[in-house]
Fold this sequence. Notes:
heterotrimer; B: alpha/beta; 11-stranded mixed sheet; globular; C: alpha/beta; 20% helix
Amino acid sequence: MLKIENLSATVGEGEAAKTIINGLSLKVPAGEVHAIMGPNGAGKSTLSYVLTGREGYEVTGGGATLDGADILAMDPEERAAAGLFLSFQYPVEIPGVPVMTFVRTAMNAQRKKRGEPEISAPDYLKKSRDVAKMLNLDADMLKRPVNVGFSGGEKKRLEIYQMMMLEPRFMVLDETDSGLDIDALRTVADGVNALRAPERGMLVITHYQRLLDHIKPDKVHVLAKGRIIKTGGPELAHRLEKEGYDGVLAEAV
Amino acid sequence: MMDCCGGIEEHDDDCADVKVKEGIDAKTVEAAKRLESENYSAGFITDIEMDMAPIGLSEDTVRFISAKKNEPEWLLEWRLEAYRRWLTMEEPSWARVHYPKIDFQAYYYYAAPKAGAKYKSIDDVPREILEAYEKLGIPLREAEVLLGVEGAADTAAAAREKPRVAVDAVFDSVSVATTFREELKKAGVIFMSISEAVHEHPELVKKYLGSVVPTSDNFYATLNSAVFSDGSFVYIPKGVRCPMELSTYFRMNAENTGQFERTLIIADEAAYVSYLEGCTAPMRDENQLHAAVVELVALDDAEIKYSTVQNWWPGDEEGKGGIFNFVTKRGDCRGARSKISWTQVETGSAVTWKYPSCILRGDDSVGEFYSIAVTNGRQQADTGTKMIHLGKRTRSRIISKGISAGKSDNTYRGLVSIHKKAEGARNFTQCDSLLIGDRCGAHTVPYIENRRADAQLEHEATTTKLSEDQLFYVRQRGIAEEQAVALLVNGFVREVLQELPMEFAVEAQKLLEVSLEGSVG
Amino acid sequence: MSIALKDLIRNPSVAELELVARYAALKADPRRERLFEAFALTGLPHRRNEEWRWSDFKAAVGALEASATPPAQDPLASDGVATLKLTPQGYVAPVSLPPGLRLLPKDDVQAMSGAEDAPLGALAAALSGAKNAPATLMAEVTGETPVRLHMVFSGPGAINAARIVFLVRPGAELQVSESHLGGAAFSTALIEYTLQPGARLDRVVYQRGGKGEAQAITALIHQEADAETKQTVLAFGARVSRIETRLVHHETGSRATLNAAYLAGDGYHVDFTSHVRHGARACVTRQVTKGAVVDGGRGVFQGKFHVPRNTGQQTDASMQHNALLLEDGAEVFAKPELEILADDVQCAHGNTSGQLDAAQLFYLRQRGIPLVQARALLTEAFIAQALEEAGVHDEALRAQAQAWLSEV
Ligand SMILES: Nc1ncnc2c1ncn2[C@@H]1O[C@H](COP(=O)(O)OP(=O)(O)O)[C@@H](O)[C@H]1O
Ligand SMILES: [Mg+2]
């Protein structure tokens, strides 16, 4: 499903450009959930931005495809319409744009691009209500501008709300667990698990085992110095939780 | 002063490196040696005989100054043209400063120390000043420099072997010594007084003098052009990183003198220089006038870092005396990828009128302005910067921290102007003001002009008083109120202090404490 | 007398001479004379006057002839609401006034505070009283129920100089909307509001002038204890236009929200100027101004908070101005100013100008919204933030903004 091959990318412009992703390869087959763990500054968020096409991140080598389509050649919105969704580590505040307006606009734009009909207002509302209920989101929150004045945990839940509304095919979750208390973590995990399906794939970026207790990964990768230095099963996450990254990093050298 | 590591033991024979001016050399060196061996309590202050121009300003004064310096004809003409223009100009009134009308005929426009200095007792030094410098922990010889003790600059400079700072000391109107000349010469760096440069490097002076601040620029700059007495000249050749920090002292000693230095710094392609300017003046009842011009030119890939710590006599608590400081400082980022960075700590002067600016002409050039301005007593400061974006992708950054105490007024006035061709220009400005006490004022007057859709300009300003909560927290931990204030103020200005060369930063920090003394309670 | 006044204006322009002539034709009145003198100190303000450096009326106002463009449509008009019309010919009062509102046409000119600081306001006051108009139109608002009033300032004609003075009695509430629609070569309106203790003012202003016209709207707002103003302005500018609000918090507990949005098209100039004086303890000001400008347009924002010594303690004031330059060739000039002479204050201002925020744009696109649509959505939301407090007029103003944005 998602195939990243020997990917290299820089951050920053001109002379200030730094190589952050350095020959990274990774495959996530349909139906699987892979976790990416790694020390701070390893390049995890950078990878998520390179995949989704943020400005200022330049691909200098290698490639990435989603179901065979070269996503790196697409605009950010085309990648989204192709089914790629990023739950941001730091969701942006958008004053003046209510959540409802925003998500509906996004949903219809994606549908349009895929040649599907727009969602009707009642259908949208019903779906929104269901999702919000499942995520314990206050209906009032959905009337407020996107992320404005939301707490850290609320922002993360709103990311998952959007994900469940848009039903993407491939999801990248960048530290969605940070800032969540235990109950909220479970709620979010339930939402994510509800989307698990044979035709969907997922990359879960996290520091902590506790999220992986709820979202069971098929594989765990360790990202350091811009590439995957180790891959293993769920037990790898347990080991990292206990030992920290030092041991794994040392083995890799 | 502000640039020394603080120790006196490193002193060695750098006196040999000190080139002293004719006429004062013998006494200077002698004084320097004597000061060396005596301890502080038996120190001296110098009362030097001065060679002065007749009081007042006329074409004759201009001719007198030019003749004293044996200047070439072109420079005399340049001065006269400025003088004639100055006669047609009006003193600006837009700044938020109030001072009695300046009688430009009541000043001496030229004052130079004569040979044969004689000494008087330390008892003549006002107690407050001595105490102030003691508190600053400024080393003996440095303090003497600050106090205007003749010769101190030279020895102090000599003691600077460790931090490696070359000093050009300006004593009232003339540059008395330039240290480390030989070593700089090896690197190809020219560092001398501007009056020497006129003779030794006329082609450079002619090419660059007035090219950043034209003689017609503004009232004070035009006056300076007519009567400038001395100042520093720096030229860093292509590709040279100046091997040490360069530094100037400005001391105002004589009564009723106007000081009109002119500094010109040129960094040729890919050159780098860091320049430190320190200013002090003894306490006098009358107001002294200071109208300097500083011109910086950075060619392709060059970088100039200009740091100032200004603690001129601010006048007493009632507002009597103190320096009128009307300064034009401007840097021209003439070359692509050039960078000019101004850092200033302003704690002195009765009236300050000063806007160190950058003309960002070269593509991808960068201008920076970091400022701390402290006013106390009855001081008035109107200071800020101008960032003129002409070239593509030019960037500027302004961080200004104003602290007002006593009955003072502190104004930030700044201009950010993005011109039509400045594609992708960027500016970030942060202006914070802190008020200590309810008799002072803090004012923010930014002008922000944007003519480019792809430019990104951000400006933020806040005005607050020292937080009671923070103050309480610190005092609860056992720190006395004054010290607590100093601590919090230091936190407030931290971002700017970080931009100062290290030794300068330490001194600046102490200076802040002294300047704010008596502001609480 | 008129000769002396003529001499007061340095190098008078054709328009200034005409203004002097119009003044001279009016009934003599010492107060009127003082007001005209206040105007004549600057004359039509020009770029050498510090407060007008980016808005040069002297250069923009040509010979005072009838405007070539008809007045703009009025989006705030509403059938159920009493409407007062102010035109070059005088004023037309509503057929029936709402309870709590009294109109008092005065034959003599009323004094104006701070006339020297608002030369075009002083001019409006000095010239009102021609034809069937009273020298000063006064209005009193009383009662428990909010009073709604709509005012239209429009041509056709050469000069529309209008003045109206409101007195809102203790605890009363005025909900006023003003449409300044142009149609005269030069319009200048002076609207004064005095809010007595506990009074409320909801003021919504819509301004749209012709490309050849000059428009000045000056509002003086005086607030006593616990009075509150909420103001929302949407402006499209004119050849040169200035919307100026001078507000004084005279007594403790007074609050003001001053919001504004401007949209400047090719050939249009919009100037927002405000001056807020915190002349009493514990008063609050919140100010948000948003603008969008295209090639050939110019937006000007000048905001000032003045906190005097002693009286201004515990001031809480913040000012935001954010502008989008939608195309190259657009110009935005800003001067957000703080003049603070009391220490126990919280004052802040922020100013940005440039493009839409890149992080926001990316966030929208990551969710699948195409670039063009994402831009439109963000720009609209950006402007709308300044219109949120417009109450019943929120929708109408938003629709105007939307229509303008969809055309650029
Ligand atoms: N815009 C940027 N400009 C320069 N460096 C950046 C930028 N964004 C990220 N970096 C650097 O890239 C490295 C990787 O960052 P990131 O991908 O956020 O790490 P992680 O998410 O793994 O903690 C860090 O060293 C970070 O400082
Ligand atoms: Mg990260």
